[in-house]
Write a structure and sequence with these properties.
This protein folds into two domains: 2-246, Amidase signature (AS) enzymes (Alpha-Beta Complex); 255-440, Alpha-Beta Complex (Amidase signature (AS) enzymes), CATH 3.90.1300. Helices cover 39% and strands 13% of the residues. It contains 15 helices and eleven strands. Helix 9 links the parallel strand 7 and strand 8 (285-289). Helix 2 (21-39) packs antiparallel against helix 3, helix 10 (293-312) crosses helix 12 (329-335) and helix 10 (293-312) packs across helix 14. The radius of gyration is 21 Å and the shape is globular.
């Protein structure tokens, strides 16, 4: 079925004329009609608007005009990115019906690549911690994670082959793990946040979701680039991420596993699966004690995140306090107690973390880590614990989750890989090697939940 195609497969078929974008978008819309009543992945969806975009892409191909890398491929957009022709409500009643005048930078880049903007996916309130109404496609009683809830669920359910999200703590990696898809957050500054809701100027980072390694890499290649609207972006060459995901490493990669001070938060089945993976990799993995500073990073992340969200959203929070959830209100009240000195001290740790990992990756290709504490928890418990993303997000490192494992209830459990800043291609090469290595590992020694078939990337 067309909706099952990866983004790269779909783009190739459209480019060759074996399928049309209109046919693909129609198939995705039918899939949404069949399944989204139970999932609730979409905050805004206009089927005719999506089909008209697809027809426009098909006309370009018929005329022999240039085609983009994602030509005719439908993409879901987290509802915190401005779209000039769709509302952007940021998961809050405060912005109900808000219609921006311009597209966010990443939305413009997707359109330039020929993508069809399918609609806006559900986000938690202000892309923070109050759960949205989306459910996990694998089990409607479980959370899809947050804050990029709808983006992860839409890709997992086959509504779209690609979706974009953001991560300020664990909002790409954790929902991708819970929903059993690939999630990738490039290095801080590679993808612009221009035109997106700002919750933390220091920590907000853009990422994507897909059902194959090649797809998340291709999406990142489309999104990357300098943007004057975002001072974290830089004017220098960027990693070639799709090439990295297809490359063989010059030698077998070397991995590190940290005995993190919060590893006790791992569910038993997730821990068992990860230990089996490490055992299967043998001498390729070095187990290391975590520096004492890692614990302080967690506290510093909290201070920076909460201090900045409180100030960035001050107008909304002060004028519409009654519309802010009871989940978020006490966090904002705590954030108001932080002093400027506390904030500056926490910011100093960002640079220290960047410096530490810059030296660390001279000896390792990637760090292996949990993507989350285990399987998706019940909807009633929130969106899950982001602790296994906090450190890497704080340092701005490229992070990737691979849907390699399964938990005791048969739900997905991701394996996270973290790489050196601005060496995202190297991280993706190591991930490609890992998947191929596990495919070649005898079944008796393979960790539970083998790497999924990637298709023709």
């Amino acid at each position: 079925m067309l909706w099952q195609l990866t983004a790269l497969e779909a783009a190739e078929r459209i480019r060759d004329g074996r399928s049309s974008s209109e046919e693909l978008v129609a198939a995705c819309l039918e899939r949404i009609r069949e399944t989204d009543g139970a999932i609730g992945a979409w905050a805004y969806l206009d089927g005719e608007q999506a089909l008209e975009q697809a027809r426009a892409m098909d006309r370009l191909r018929q005329r022999g005009q240039p085609l983009g890398d994602l030509h005719g491929v439908p993409v879901g957009i987290k509802d915190i990115f401005d779209t000039h022709d769709m509302p952007t409500e940021c998961g809050t009643a405060i912005h109900k019906g808000r219609q921006p005048n311009d597209d966010a930078t990443v939305v413009s880049k997707l359109k330039e690549a020929g993508a069809v903007i399918m609609g806006k996916t559900v986000t938690t309130e202000f892309a923070f911690m109050h759960p949205a109404g989306t459910t996990n496609p694998h089990n409607a009683d479980r959370t899809p994670g947050g804050s990029s809830s709808g983006s992860a669920a839409a890709v997992a359910a086959g509504h779209v082959p690609l979706a974009i999200g953001t991560q300020t703590n664990g909002s790409v990696i954790r929902p991708a793990s819970f929903c059993g898809v690939y999630g990738f957050k490039p290095t801080r500054g590679i993808v612009s946040r221009g035109g997106a809701l700002q919750t933390s100027k220091t920590l907000d980072q853009v990422g994507g979701f897909a059902r194959s390694l090649g797809d998340v890499a291709a999406l990142a290649d489309v999104l990357k680039g300098f943007d004057r609207a975002d001072p974290t972006t830089h004017v220098r060459p960027k990693p070639q991420m799709l090439d990295g995901s297809r490359s063989d490493p010059p030698m077998e990669p070397s991995f590190a596993w940290f005995e993190l001070p919060f590893n006790d938060r791992l569910d038993d089945d997730a821990r068992d699966g990860l230990m089996e993976l490490i055992e299967a990799l043998g001498a390729r993995v070095e187990v290391l004690p975590a520096p004492a500073s890692f614990s302080r990073v967690i506290e510093c992340h909290r201070i920076v995140h909460e201090y900045e969200i409180c100030r960035h959203l001050s107008d909304d929070l002060e004028t519409h306090w009654d519309l802010v959830s009871a989940t978020v209100q006490p966090v904002i009240e705590r954030a108001r107690t932080y002093s400027d000195d506390q904030y500056r001290d926490a910011l100093d740790m960002v640079q220290a973390a960047e410096d530490y990992f810059s030296a660390f990756f001279a000896d390792y290709d990637a760090v292996l880590a949990p993507s989350a504490t285990g399987e998706a928890p019940p909807l009633t418990s929130g969106t899950g614990d982001p602790i296994f993303s906090t450190l890497w997000t704080f340092a701005g490192l490229p992070c990737l989750t691979l849907p390699l494992l399964a938990g005791a209830a048969g739900l997905p459990v991701g394996v996270q890989m973290i790489g050196c800043a601005e060496q995202d291609d190297r991280l993706l090469t190591s991930a490609n090697w890992l998947q191929l290595h596990l495919d070649d590992t005898p079944d008796d020694d393979a960790p539970e939940g083998d790497a999924p078939d990637e298709g023709a990337d």
